[in-house]
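User: New here, please read:
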Amino acid sequence: MTDPLARYNAKRDFAKTAEPAGTLAPGHVPSTGSGQASFIVQKHDATRLHWDFRLEIDGVLKSWAVTRGPSLDPAEKRLAVRTEDHPLSYASFEGTIPKGEYGGGTVMLWDRGTWSPIVGKSAKDLDKGHLHFVLDGERMKGEWLLIRLKGRPKEKRENWLLRKIDDADAGGTDSLVDEALTSVATGRTMVEIEEGKPALSSPSKGRGTKAQARRGPARRNPKGLPAFREPQLCTLVDAVPAGAAWLHEIKYDGYRALVAVANGKAKVFTRKGNDWTDRFLAVATAAAALPGSALIDGEIVSFKDGKPDFSTLKDAIGAGGAMTMFAFDLIEQDGEDLSALPLVTRKERLRALLGEDGEALRFSEHVVGSGEPLFHQMCAEGLEGVVSKLADAPYRSGRSKAWTKTKCVQRQEFAIVGWQPSEKRRGFASLLLATCDGGAWTYRGKVGTGFDAATIEDVAARLAPLARDKATVKAPRALVRGARWVEPELVAEVAYGEVTPDGILRHASFVALRADKPAREVATERAVPPPPAPDLPTVSSADRLIFPDSTVTKGDLAAYYAAVAGIMLPWTGGRPVSLVRCPQGRARACFFQKHDAGSFGPHVHQVPIPEKDGSTENYLWVDDAAGLVACVQMGSIEFHGWGARNDALETPDRMVFDLDPDEGLGFAETKKAAEHLKEQLAELGLVSFPLLSGGKGVHVVVPLTPRAEWPAVKDFASRFAQALSAAEPDRFVAQAAKAKRQGRIFIDWLRNQRGSTAIMPYSARARAGAPVAAPVSWTELRTLDTATRWSVTDADDLLARAGSRALAGWGIADQVLPDL
């Protein structure tokens, strides 16, 4: 029998390399069937950076070198060159292969997990040149394909293509390789592995589109778990609210819950404040792993046939089955009450806190505007409906019209007030239902379908000790003849087709019992018309052309900012801003304004900030669409923001490197420069994101967990820019003097000091054509030929893009500055 590892051993001198010698694992059972086996991916900086993809088959690791790394984009087919089989012991190898040896360079354990062929296939399909399989790794998940290309004459190695199948784990970018920068085993970057630095005590797990590159030390809350607070509730409406002021989420079929987290512990509360941690233990365990302290709002569900199903959740609670919490709001974090912040800001902080979705804890995605299409999609897929929320609204306990729900199927809770016997089956024929309106019980009809035998037996047993002789509720005698009455303590979730004019349910079907709401609080829900869009400040001279080389008016600009407020406020809201004001339009005099004594009106706020000379100045800030429009009314076009928020002014939450090309350079050179910065930052373990400036250049944005103070961030940015300039002086310059920029790109790091600002995502620019600063992915950037791709006339396109795969997780990473 030929030794499958002979080629591996022949290529290596094990006296010089720390790689394991190639021996077959004793007693290993070959993995050629349909069961699970292991897989790993190793990032390998050899002659050329690549990712080694390895599948356990027949007692060895079948291996491919993927030159650009795996992509989440199903449209991307990545070349995967077949290499020699490796021993199973190689699956734990991480370190440096000496230069001059085969494969010399740094090796990182970049991903690991299990794999299995899809149902009906096996690993033997590899010999046929086509392998369809499922990965369950820390970074790579879902269905993938390996396809062998037809060989060419004199070709020494097999060339294959690795491609992601379009499923729930797919994406639209290169976020896997762009954002997952540390080892899943040791938490180290490539530079740290090369330098032989020790493993981190708590390595960051693999991240995909919502990267978590390098965590700082765990944050502790000496006050312990946040206290329960009454959740915000939705108003039932008969149509989805229209307009860009609203964001829309899927309405999940489950239990509403608040989760309190602190110091490695978690507690799960029902919407009435009951401690149900023991019933939702999987959710509590997942939440306990989050850093710092938090109070999170969400819905806990279980799935049946890929859809949330309340009955399945009830079974999961009793049997310890699988369940998932879709988290949609962050009320407190690290001792800070976030309830006054706009919803979009709270959600972005929640997204950053949660990181990559897990089995038991996931971020609830949303779309801004376009609620009606989402509603029709949910109904077509058999889901409950849509929840709509004002994007800039605070969190307020109790029911309000700032949160609404639109249902595909009529469903609500009813108190069980009695039952009617059955002549054909044990238990009961139907349950009698009521609501408590104004303190009095009102009969709402009966439900006799939706039960299986086990449910009838369970409900009947629960009703028996609640029996009473007197009628619980007034009802037409003919409808309740023979009824057995009970104390109204049990609550049933019931679906129904319609309600008669006298309030009786028709076509009712039992869903499940609910234990998270007292029967006395079950009231009739009546759908009301959706609330109108919030009033915005009046814009005078709305027809004035403020971009004379286009048709864009002051009114158009105000409408643009009102439309994109939901995607702009997460970046602009709650931080000091400087405005570029052009009261007579961009063709006339424009100026910066950062201070205000209240002349902008009530929608634009002031935050007092100490200056160097000991004085205090009021800086401008906004937190809603009305604030953005009020600034436009005062002649503002551009919004530039600090690198820190009002609540943490001395600890920046981002760095920005503005790549400003000399007049003679084209956009192609700027794109390549941005890509180079991304790669250099990645070597240090920092994830970055590109922002089209809406001018000539590109901003490379580096999110930061706000720990380091301004002097440290400024020092890092300065030394990083100067190091790049020193390494390639003909390409880069780190000094602001224009005389030194000729033929080069200025790396403007000066934005990263206290009081400096940078253009905000989605801000308009006071430039020809009314362009806007637009977030893009690194994949998209490679295809663009201008930094002014989008303008204020493209609000609909920008809103659609903001919820797309391409921008999923843009600007989000929990990471701290490394040592330089």
Summary: Residues 554-648 form one domain. The longest strand covers residues 105-117. Confidence is low (pLDDT under 50) at residues 27-34, 205-217. The CA atoms of residues 84 and 752 lie 48 Å apart.
